[in-house]
């Protein structure tokens, strides 16, 4: 599997799953759902709004780097929006919009011809001065997916910690199309 395919398939599936968590949070919290966007797992961590946006940033940055493209202005704007979400967390509708925009970018990227050489060099410089010298396969697997899942799991943990009734089934919702017929356990009525 090329680094591009790995990234688009994984990030696409999990962003759709994240959107489902937001649906569940909204159904659970009702009119108070938007307040969840400002919630944090720990005081020194970013809020839910930032975690969602950073997950979108990771997917989009990864696609740009793998394609050898400069970051578009809207990606920089999304990154700045994420960094400022502590003061302006926005709404669940805003978060869903960022997820939908990212899914559109993923679909367009998936349709473009891939540069499938997993050995091509990728230089990844962090704002604090650290520079990673990776190949495309390492970058997709070890950086992008690691960072993407970190922010995704913090979003899940925040929602769970605040009482949203999420469980393992919500986390693996993207796997349901692969369930072999007749192997799903029957749940008792009312479970």
Please explain how this structure is put together.
With 191 residues, the chain is mainly alpha-helical. The protein has a single domain, classed as dinb family like domain (Four Helix Bundle (Hemerythrin (Met), subunit A), Up-down Bundle), CATH 1.20.120.450. Helix content is 57%, strand content 5%. It has helices spanning 3-29, 48-67, 73-83, 92-111, 136-161, 168-171, and strands at residues 121-125, 131-135. It has a two-stranded antiparallel sheet. Strand 1 (121-125) and strand 2 (131-135) form a beta hairpin. The radius of gyration is 18 Å and the shape is globular. The mean pLDDT is 92.
Low-confidence stretches: none
Radius of gyration: 18 Å
- Per DSSP, what share of the residues sits in E-state strands of 2 or more residues? 5-15%
Return the CATH topology: Four Helix Bundle (Hemerythrin (Met), subunit A)
CA-to-CA gap between the ends? 39 Å
SSE-based structural type: mainly alpha
Query: Can you tell me the number of structural domains?
Result: 1
Keyword list:
single chain; 191 residues; mainly alpha; Four Helix Bundle (Hemerythrin (Met), subunit A); two-stranded antiparallel ribbon; 2 strands
SSE diagram, text form:
Elements lengths: L2 H27 L18 H20 L5 H11 L8 H20 L9 E5 L5 E5 H26 L6 H4 L20
Antiparallel strand pairs: 1-2
């Amino acid at each position: 599997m090329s680094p591009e395919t790995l990234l688009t398939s994984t990030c696409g599936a999990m962003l759709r799953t994240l959107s489902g968590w937001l649906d569940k949070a909204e159904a659970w919290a009702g009119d108070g759902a938007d307040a969840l966007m400002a919630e944090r797992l720990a005081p020194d961590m970013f809020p839910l709004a930032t975690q969602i946006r950073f997950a979108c940033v990771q997917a989009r940055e990864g696609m740009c780097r793998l394609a050898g493209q400069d970051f578009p202005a809207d990606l920089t704007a999304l990154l700045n929006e994420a960094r400022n979400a502590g003061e302006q967390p926005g709404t669940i509708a805003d978060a869903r919009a960022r997820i939908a925009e990212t899914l559109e970018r993923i679909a367009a990227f998936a349709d473009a011809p891939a540069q499938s050489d997993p050995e091509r060099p990728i230089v990844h410089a962090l704002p604090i001065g650290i520079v990673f010298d990776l190949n495309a396969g390492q970058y997709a697997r070890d950086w992008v997916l690691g960072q993407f899942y970190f922010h995704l799991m913090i979003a899940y943990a925040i929602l769970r910690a605040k009482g949203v009734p999420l469980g393992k089934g919500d986390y693996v919702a993207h796997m349901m199309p692969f369930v072999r017929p007749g192997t799903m356990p029957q749940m008792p009525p009312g479970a």
